């Protein structure tokens, strides 16, 4: 770390300003602000065009305008450098460190599957220092494509050093224009696909829709996912959206047509929810980054049964409660019908991807 003690002699208003604000943010210990005036680069990973540490004289900071916003590195569209002012333990001195960072196009995209844990996956990968994860969905290659690559780039988080940028929009998996668009931008794109038991996925998707769309509030899962001719003729409703979205093989070929198999990494979402570390390790290997994520980073909460992240300050960070939304209770006979219905699709899916070890 390159640190620059702030001289207390020859104080200017700016120093006072900086120290005051630094003190306000003692809790985090870090104030981030943006140095504007540089063009954002469309660079992929590689050396950023400035030294990663640069000495600057705290008297001549030209960015006091944007300074009062902690974590403001997303505010300025042209942000290119990030300056981090930290405080030493005695709080007698301010220290300034300059880190270069740049927005970059992603080198990996979590393309799906909805309701299989993409939120947790993005959240958990975010703790890796060699990854810069865009956690909110951009929908760029699907609905926001007309906004252009510049827009897309500016959605990306600032990434330090050699960090790889990742985005996550699970809707992509189902959209037929998306694979071609991604490949057109970057044929070497790495794709991460987290999959889970399609029966559970269908139920979970229904639960989410019921929660989000009020019109579904009184409908029952069985009524939506099945058609009833009579008591003896109960079939899976193929026209139901949530059923359709669980037919994974149906949407796979469009990806295999656009990308070589070795650029697609399949994450076992059921295993991931039981033991995230094991699946995260495989992703580290796939992305060619150092093994960093350890069991220490996770703690299972007794209430939801979900894993939470343990941050440096040892406080637990959990996913929002809606992620643990209760599923409707569905009778075993209906679940069995669904399981039977998906069996053929599943086999095809496994065969096309040459994967095994899945129990659905
Ligand atoms: C601030 O001053 C230092 C030393 O005079 C100089 O090297 C640096 O480029 C200046 N920084 C800015 C942002 O003007
Ligand atoms: C991007 O797409 C999403 C989903 O269609 C939409 O909600 C959002 O407003 C779009 N963003 C912009 C900037 O248009």
From TrEMBL:
The chain crosses the membrane at residues 15-38. InterPro entries: NST/OST (IPR037359), P-loop_NTPase (IPR027417), Sulfotransferase_dom (IPR000863). Pfam families: Sulfotransfer_1. The keyword Nucleotide-binding does not apply. Residues 107-301 form the Sulfotransferase domain. The active site is at residue 115. Signal peptide: none annotated. Disulfide bonds join 308-318. GO terms for molecular function: [heparan sulfate]-glucosamine 3-sulfotransferase activity. 3'-phosphoadenylyl sulfate binds at residues 204, 307, 323-327. Coiled coil: none annotated. The keyword Lipid metabolism does not apply. Keywords: Disulfide bond, Glycoprotein, Membrane, Transferase, Transmembrane, Transmembrane helix. Gene3D superfamilies: P-loop containing nucleotide triphosphate hydrolases. PANTHER family: GH20068P, HEPARAN SULFATE SULFOTRANSFERASE. This is Sulfotransferase domain-containing protein.
